[in-house]
Write a structure and sequence with these properties.
heterodimer; A: about 110 residues; mainly beta; five-stranded antiparallel sheet; globular; B: about 110 residues; seven-stranded mixed sheet; four-stranded antiparallel sheet; 11 strands; about 55% strand
Chain lengths: ~110, ~110
């Protein structure tokens, strides 16, 4: 059973701080990694994708991938109350070109 | 607006009813998905269609019946559902190539079975 693990949280950070969200996955051959943000009652919104080891930055967001450790993280700099949401990690299963497995998500609370 | 549109947004149905959920994508993608999201559970993959062929059926009960008439449209036909089927049903699409690229979700259908 392929798995994607996330701490459910909530992760509480003050406004302006860096929020660090972590995800581990079980399938060593996974190639595609995504972070989604989901507000309560809404659908998931893609915020970052990463395919190779290292860091990828987009505005206040940085995704980090370490395939050897089977670990992917998301850093949010200068956190804002509007960043309060559940963050979902998604990983493709094995060498599948279509099957995405989602973690259960980490709830982030940014305190004003 | 993600380019993936789902209708209806909300649906209340009795256990003996038949209804359908509709999804349409305007992104030129070649793979479409149905996911189920229940309270406090991870997203569950139900069905995947790639180039109108069903490539994944994740042990979903037969009371859920998908249909993909072309690469832009996806339906989920519902009949004789149970109260535990109440959930958020999400459609997504992606571009399937050597590996999966970004998947975009529709707004979802909040289904309540009474």
């Amino acid at each position: 059973q392929k798995e994607v693990e996330q701490n459910s949280g909530p992760l509480s950070v003050p406004e302006g701080a860096i929020a660090s969200l972590n995800c581990t996955y079980s399938d060593r051959v996974s190639q595609s990694f995504f972070w989604y943000r989901q507000y309560s009652g809404k659908s998931p919104e893609l915020i970052m994708s990463i395919y190779s080891n290292g860091d990828k930055e987009d505005g206040r967001f940085t995704a980090q991938l370490n395939k050897a450790s089977q670990y992917v993280s998301l850093l949010i700099r200068d956190s804002q109350p509007s960043d309060s949401a559940t963050y979902l990690c998604a990983v493709n299963e094995g060498d599948s070109s279509y099957k995405l497995i989602f973690g259960s998500g980490t709830r982030l609370l940014v305190r004003p | 607006e993600t380019g993936v549109t789902q209708t209806p947004r909300h649906l209340v149905m009795g256990m003996t009813n038949k209804k359908s959920l509709k999804c349409e994508q305007h992104l030129g993608h070649n793979a479409m998905y149905w996911y189920k999201q229940s309270a406090k559970k991870p997203l569950e993959l139900m069905f995947v269609y790639s180039l109108e062929e069903r490539v994944e059926n994740n042990s979903v009960p037969s009371r859920f019946s998908p249909e993909c008439p072309n690469s832009s449209h996806l339906f989920l036909h519902l009949h004789t559902l149970q109260p535990e089927d109440s959930a958020l049903y999400l459609c997504a699409s992606s571009l399937r190539g050597p590996y999966i690229t970004e998947a975009f979700f529709g707004q979802g259908t909040r289904l309540t079975v009474v």
